[in-house]
Amino acid sequence: MQQNSLAGGWYINDFHRRNSMAAQREVMQMCQSSPALSDYQRECECGAKQEIAIEEWAKATGLWTDNVDKQLSQTLGEQIAEGGEAKVYDHGATLIKSIGLDYFIQPIYALDRIALHNTYFPETRLFVIGFGRDKNNEFKIIVEQPFINGQPVCDAEIADYMKQMGFELKNPRNWTYATPDIYLSDMHDENIIRSATGSIFVVDCDIRINTPELRNGGIRTLTTNILY
């Protein structure tokens, strides 16, 4: 990992914030492929092209890490937790997470989710500090996040908290909430924490633009057009 990873992380986050829509247009051009491919095959092909482009950029800027898990373990010690998409390492006042693409396929969707998380839950902002691959050659996004010490929050309290934010409970079985614009899932007691001062923090969730395809009352459309 680069010693100047935090400075590099600022550059990554600022670059993504300022160039998201332009990058999306470039991605659409990148992802043009044979119409004979299925939607899933086309998405995998597009994701692989994005990985290559990000890897080339990250290596050129010194923000690439080979064998991410080994490097993080050597630097920070063994992982302290593992979820469906991320491995978590203790870094004192912060956590370092190695996030895979299992839920996204395309890196741009994972980065967009990070941007959405940071917009709605800035207290637990995910700060991108680099990229890499693990021992299985799987692409990883490396992020840093504040460590929140607290207790889990029960489902009823989470529902009340989300209602105050304007979200409606859509599916209690997978803890899904939504507005017409934003889809939120995995809002359960392992991802929501109450601090000693009583504040509630969302440390992890599945947050997306709510499109009709998600079947949760979404009205938004993903587009590469820029509105002024």
Written description of the protein model:
It is built from five helices and 13 strands. By secondary structure, it is α+β, with helices and mostly antiparallel strands. It has a six-stranded mixed sheet, with helices on both faces. It starts with a helix and ends in a 19-residue tail after the last strand.
List keywords for this structure.
228 residues; alpha+beta; 6-stranded mixed beta sheet; globular; disordered N terminus
Structural class: alpha+beta
Helix content: 25-40%
Radius of gyration: 18 Å
Assembly of the depicted chains = single chain
> What is the number of strand segments?
13
Shape: globular
Q: How many DSSP helices?
A: 5
Q: Characterize the biggest β-sheet.
A: 6 strands, mixed
Which strands sit side by side, in order, in the main sheet?
1-5-6-4-3-2
Mean pLDDT: 87
Query: What is the strand content?
Result: 15-25%
- Strand and helix order: HHEHEEEHEEEHEEEEEE
Terminal-residue CA separation: 39 Å
Q: Which residues form runs of ≥5 with pLDDT under 50?
A: 1-8, 17-22
In short:
With 228 residues, the protein is α+β, with helices and mostly antiparallel strands.
Protein topology:
Blueprint (H helix, E strand, L loop, with lengths): L4 H26 L8 H22 L3 E2 L2 H9 L4 E2 L3 E6 L2 E6 L7 H14 L6 E7 L5 E8 L3 E3 L2 H10 L3 E4 L4 E3 L3 E4 L6 E4 L4 E3 L3 E4 L19
Parallel strand pairs: 1-5
Antiparallel strand pairs: 2-3, 3-4, 4-6, 5-6, 7-11, 8-9, 9-10, 10-13, 11-12
Helix pairs in contact: 1-4
